[in-house]
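Predict the assembly for these two chains.
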Amino acid sequence: MDILIEFIPNVVKYAHQFPKAILDTLLMLLYSGVISLVIGLIFGVIVVVTRKGGILENKVVFFILDKIINLFRSIPFIILIPMLFFLSRIIFNTTIGISGALVPLVVGTIPFMARQMESAMMEIDEGIVEAAISMGMSPMQIILHVYLRENVPGMIRGITITLIALIGQIAIVGAVGAGGLGDMAIRYGQRYMYDITYTVVILILIIISVIQSIGNKLVDKTTH
Amino acid sequence: MKIGGNANSLSSYRWMKVFFWKGWINMIRLEHVTKSFQTKDGEVHAVKDVSLEIKEGQIYGIIGFSGAGKSTLVRCINLLERPDDGKVIFDGKDLLELSAKELRAERQKMGMIFQHFNLLRAKTIYENIAMPLRMMKKDKKEIDKKVMELLELIDLVERKDSYPSQLSGGQKQRVAIARALASDPKVLLCDEATSALDPQTTQSILKLIKKVNKEMKITVVMITHEMLVVKEICDRVAVMENGRVVEKNDIVPIFIEPIEEITKNFINTTNNSNKINELIEEKHPLTQLNPNQQLVRLKYTSNNTKEAIISEISRTYNVDCSIIFGNVEVIKDSPLGTLVTVFTGDDENIRKALEFCKKEGVYVEVMKRGHID
């Protein structure tokens, strides 16, 4: 104990704040991850099927969605946060805390997730889609049984990458009032309590490693 | 016999089905089908004004070099590619006039297999074969019965829980065939189905297709660039070059008397009887003729081999025949013989002898006459 106090005095002193910070970070990861997965997947599918030569080719829909995704991907996340304060107020009636962070996190992650899902689905051999069409499958059946099933390992890889990127963004929203590990690292770091900052970095590293190894396991499991 | 797409002619079509022998009915009819693609280098006319009639129960080969438009053509049959112009009539219906939903119903009556198999990687063999049935919302028992039947047909029952990646190319193609047959189609479209397989596996796949054609009465359209495949199983063949069908005929006649240069080239890939042309050009001693000799190529089928034609010639016309090259090949179960012979005798007798051969149904081609030097 004495050794701990000597080397990481502030961590010991503020230890009681860590569980909540970790929980907040994980909750933000869970909520924004799930929401952006669902919406990102839908956007990804729409982009894949409406592109030129797709099973539901539609120039207008493709053009609009493709440009929206590019637009939101090109806005730096730190700028996206204040841009979306108004939306957070409308939906959650606050701009701070977990709920306040959710809107920018989701809006910032959806385009990234959509592109990851799109590229996973584009990896599917066109011949398989052709075979599905020749079987008389409807576009909806092709989406459900081919596009969403044939490259699950690729999708999991995309989700893993997106979630890891999301951790970085959760740290950023932490600094503007959402709480969580990022908030702790920055707040105490600015007060020269670097041991807390380093501990947070290690904790984030652990979270990322866990996500990565779960991702790898699932990829192995779904690869035939 | 015209089969239109509208309601009136449809009923007459059903009547015809009652009255006519099965082989008369057109299963697929393409009328002036044209398809072009927009590419960076401008417009590519993949299929130009192709008209074909594929009869019920036939195995119809479409042969051509790569880029001839044959794959595009077969994709026009189930509208994987929509023709720019022309008509695609399948089983009495004009496919181009159907709604998306009606078209899907027609597609279920056409199985298709591909060069690279295109099996669902994430699904087991069993699930792959069950797929078309699941999409048709058949009940589980019915699906299971059908899939097991098909697994038996392709002889892969014990591999039913394997994934496609665990199978060899030939096995994958067998699964693809089973999947294509699951919806009880009337037609099987094969797009270069054997091109990715080794010769032995090709033979076994062709055998399976032949069996499917014979036992399940399924019309087959075979796209290929290998004349051996055509020779093995096709009843009729269309030769494609630069997007056009340049020659079409039943299989035996086309082997006996090919007209277009490209057809001759394809046929030459399956045997070496045309080596003789090279020998003539090289002035090989074998082809050196005396003034009273002619070098003649005879082609005959099983129908006219019962008569002892050669002995008949010698006896009646006083013409000696010496065979310098002989070859018998089996084309879709019927033998086709080729003999390159030297006829020795006086001109008039040889002429009469050749007349006689032609009358007996033997294809005759004088390749070289002897000259007085």
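Chain A has one domain: 13-222. The domain at 13-222 of chain A is CATH 1.10.3720.10 (MetI-like fold).
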